[in-house]
Amino acid sequence: MTDRAPLAGEVFPIITAADLPAALRFYVDLLGGVVTYRFPETGEPAYVSLRFGDGQLGIGRQEANESPSGPTTLWVYVADCRAAVADLRAAGVQVVAEPEKQPWGERMATVADPDGNRILVADHG
Asked: What is the average per-residue pLDDT within 86-95?
């Protein structure tokens, strides 16, 4: 350890979405993210920042000449994993792994966002 101040003051993930409106429906309408920034301010957005409690997520629109940057995994805490997965399934979200108690005590399931990114949905058990 060093006494030097941290180089980075804040870090947050940014994912790329082939269909930004579909990604926003998933992250805002289903998971409850709050839009804190969008660019441009009017018209079709190219980038959106979301807040989830103390966490942040950026979502950028994939441009026509751009390849997906690769799979991403996000961990999302919910009050009740089973209920959250039931709600996501009812909304047409692909459930990759059903809720299951983990060795460390939390309950976890895996779903996929509209771009196939893994979303680990968990509660504290």
From this structure: 96
Secondary element (H or E) of residue 90: helix 81-90
Please, which residues have CB within 8 angstroms of residue 42's CB and are 6 or more apart in sequence?
none
pTM above 0.85, yes or no: no
Provide the residue count of the chain.
125
Domains and CATH numbers, the chain: 14-63+70-123 (3.10.180.10)
pLDDT of residue 2: 66
If you average pLDDT over every residue of the chain, what do you get?
Answer: 89
Tell me the residue type at 100.
E
Characterize the bridge pairing of strands 73-77 and 94-101: unpaired
CB contact at 8 A, 73 and 88: no
